[in-house]
Structure formats: structure tokens, C-alpha cells
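Hi C.,

You asked whether I'd gotten around to modeling the 178-residue construct. I have! Everything is below, sequence then structure, no commentary in between.
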Amino acid sequence: MMTEEEREEIQQELAKLEEEINTLRQVLSSKEKQHAELKQKLGVGPLSELRTNFSRGWQDMQSSTAYKKTSETLSTAGQRTSAAFSTLGSAITRKFGDMRSNSIGYSIRHSMSMPTMRNSPSFKSFEEKVENTVTTIKTKVGGTGPGGSFEDVLSSAANASSQDTPTGNLPDGSERAS
């Protein structure tokens, strides 16, 4: 047990600490006012402070290892996608060139019907190359969502290109092989 004298001593010490705490609160309040006045004179308000903190945080994030790795990965994925589309474009151009050079002075449009052309070895080969290229692109980019059948894509591409040409037909001179 505690004696009366020890109890009184502890209460005096507690009162002293409470007085010091109140004094420190007053000093802190005064310093905070002074701080706010100086910031106001400099034109630094809450919004500019927020902007500064945001900028500092953005710079810290950009210098982080995770951000750098993510940025490099996205850049590489973009380059690979670009290369894959370039390869696809080259394959399509080459295949159309082959089809044009195989025609004997007349248009494919006039030489066979669409169902006959679709069953031709050239078209089947072209179709397989395009499907393989699309699969490769999806695999490299990571997209596995449904994109429609090849026929749907071919059909929509044909509709889009026929809308690009006012009559939907090419002039006679451009259909002929050189």
C-alpha cells in the first residue's frame, strides 16, 4: 500500500505534468498560427500543398522498381503487337499479290464465285495464315476473349471496305493484272 505522503507527491507530480501539457498546447497553437501566416504570405495554400504532395508522390512512384518493370513490360508488349500486325499486313499483301499474279488477265471477281474461291487451295492457305497470325497475336498480347469466327471478321472487313469505295466496286482498270 501507498502512504498518504507518497500519494500526495504523485498527485503534485500529476498536476505539474498537466500544467506543462497545457503550456505546450498553447505554444504549439501559437506556432501553428505563425506557420499558417507565413504560408499565406508565400501564397502556399492547401491546394498548392496538395499539388506538391501529389507531384512528389508521382515522382516517387515513377522511380519505384514496380513501376519501371510494368512500364518496360507494357512497352515490350506494344512492340510485339506492332511487329505482329506488321507481319499480318505483309502476309495479306503478299497473298493478295500472289492471287493477283495467278489471275490470267481477268479479275478474280469475274473468274469464280465466292463459294468456289473459298474452297480454293490459295484461299484456304491464306485463311490458315490469317487465323494463325491472329492466334499468335492473341497469345502474345494475352487476350483470349471471343473475337467472333473468322467468317464474321472476314464479312465485317468486306462490309467496311465496300463502304469505303463509293460504288462498292473498283474501276475496271484497277482489277486487271499487270
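If it helps when you're writing up: The two ends are 115 Å apart (CA to CA).

Thanks,
B.
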